Amino acid sequence: MRDKAATRPDTKHFEESHQPSSALKAASLNLERNYHVFLSFRGTDIRNNFLGHLYAALDQKGIYTYVDSEELRKDERITPALIKAIEDSRIAIIIFSEDYASSSWCLEEVEKIMECKEQRGLTVFPVFYKVEPKEVRTPRGSYREAMVKHENKFGRDSEKVKRWKKALYDAGSLSGWDLNDK
After folding, report:
1. Segment 9-41, tens digit of pLDDT
2. What domains can you pick out in the chain, each with its CATH number?
3. What is the rounded average pLDDT of the residues 127-136?
4. How far apart are CA 55 and CA 64, in angstroms?
5. Angle (CA) 175 58 165, round 5°
6. Which terminus in the chain has less CB density within 10 A, N or C?
7. At a CB cut-off of 8 Å and minimum separation 6, what does 77 contact?
8. Residue range 111-130: average pLDDT?
9. Phi, psi (rounded to 5 degrees) for 174
10. Strands of the sheet with 65-66, listed across from one edge
11. How far does Cα 39 stand from its chain's mean position?
12. Contact in structure between 41 and 49 (CB atoms under 8 Å)
């Protein structure tokens, strides 16, 4: 049964040429979990363009994908339903965009995703959308600016900020897809 919080982004501009990887196709064969793919993204950056195309391509291939709605993001902490969606997924695709690290919610997600990778064997595939992997890992550029703001809010030596930095470093170090078409 599909979660009512999972919504479909705008897919009107979908092109037939988008094809998911063989790993995503293989994941659709395993029905033990509720979702095949969990998409982590910063909505203001990509919800109605890249995300719509990606979701449509996955959906067309019968790959059950979790995409949260903007209404869920009223608080800074991720909800238990979202944590369960991450835990129940086979694959997590993290779409790192310019504004991703500015969101405490996104940083909580990436931390949980990387925890599930280590503890549950979740497959994690990063997409670097208009950012370089090194910007995510080090952090640099908009990621550095965002982390400075989080350090000011939570404290430079905050355990939370340290966990977020580690999660960004670990996820940014994975092989993924670089869509840096600035």
Report:
1. 443 333 333 344 444 444 434 444 589 999 999
2. 22-179 (3.40.50.10140)
3. 95
4. 9
5. 35
6. N
7. 104, 105, 108
8. 97
9. -75, 155
10. 65-66, 35-40, 89-96, 123-129, 177-179
11. 5
12. no
Cα→Cα distances 162→91, 104, 115, 166, Å: 25, 13, 14, 6
* 43 pLDDT higher than 80: no
* Tokens encoding 14: 């979908």
Cβ–Cβ under 8 Å, residues 110 and 171: yes
Question: Is-catalytic flag, 109?
Answer: yes
Mind spelling out the 3-state secondary structure of 85-145?
A: HHHCEEEEEEEECCCHHHCHHHHHHHHHHHHHHHHHCCEEEEEEECCCHHHHHCCCHHHHH
Of 87, 108, 109, 111, which is the active-site residue? Answer: 109
Q: Running DSSP on this structure, what letter comes out for residue 34?
A: S
Tokens describing residue 54: 């990606």
End-to-end Cα, the chain, rounded Å: 39
